Amino acid sequence: MRRSFRYRALLKRILQIVGVLILVQSIIDFRRSRAPLVEQPGNAKPEKIFIAGIHWNNEKVLREHWVPGVLRLVKHFGEDNVYVSVQESGSWDRSKEALAELDKGLEMVGVRKKIILDETTHEDEIKKPPGKSGWIQTPRGLKELRRVPYLARLRNLVLEPLYELAQAGEHFDKVLFINDVVFKTQDVQRLLDTRDGDFAAACSLDFSKPPLFYDTFALRDSEGHDTLMQSWPYFRSRESRDALKASQPVPVTSCWNGIVAMDTAPFYSSTNPLHFRGTPDTLAALHLEGSECCLIHTDNPLSATKGVWLNPNVRVGYSQRAYDQVNPGGSSANAWVGTASMLHGSWENRLLRWLTIEWFQESTVRRRIKTWQTSGEGRIETGAACLINEMQVLIANGWAHV
Predict the structure, then answer these.
(1) pLDDT tens string 42-71
(2) 293 neighbors 217 (Cβ within 8 angstroms)
(3) β 392-395/289-290 pair status
(4) CA nearest 134: which of 154, 120, 118, 148?
């Protein structure tokens, strides 16, 4: 009985100590993370901005948010300091009509632009005879059009005026890619102010169903790992996680996440201008895929010197409701991460780091890359951090995993 009593007393003591340690750590997490969650607005700087976007079946957000938002940006930066380039193709809603309104609005204020409204649908694309690249033999026994090279081609089309204007002697400071998101002018300005504008790329955080962030395909932490969780504080890397908790620019390997601003210098290179791409078809055939929005950063020579940064103080949504949920107001009482979510997220993240090892999760990708490299001379993929165990193809009503 005495021994049993001693064991129970010892167990009780251990549980008390663990409880105190959890409480202390929770208080530390709270104090570190709570204060910085309310940010200050950005400060406008004179820059020339090339605004780019690709759209497909985005009528609602275009009419209600994107088109008015771009027109406000034009006014904010000044009509002479902006160029707007948009590619739309194959929508079956009224996206073309919404973008035609943008075209007229820009025309009225004298802003230079290129708005492409292409009638070519996804079905038209996949019915074409397979080309030399961008097509893949899938487990369905078909040769199908890969999604990522298709999107990379559209993004490169949007950038064509940037190169044409450079040949005429005009250069821009930043390229601003804006997805089909709800945003405000202050969000964009705050993004451009990231690190006082000193970056290879700076991204927002995007949300479709808060508190889960949306763009898992492109976001990699400072060590090149996929995010540990979709809710705050997201990252496995300590460097990325600590910056996020302090509401400071987060060092990452890659991001996109709704809006991204990029230094234009690499796009103007005379020897090897930066462009969007997909991975080689021979690598994709091994059931590996990487986002063009991730590969652009691993290809960018400025990423190593100026860095790629996620700005947690810039949060956009794929609906007004999502935007409002992650932008609740400017007082500390309305911080975008609530106390309960913050404490729960900190401990969930900690437990996941203790109980999982990224090596096992990434071993399949590494093994397939090695197989690919040894199967052909001179095969190198610099964007290994972007690759995941997926195969994605275009279909008539969107895209599919195969």
Answers:
(1) 555 679 999 999 999 999 999 999 999 999
(2) yes
(3) unpaired
(4) 148
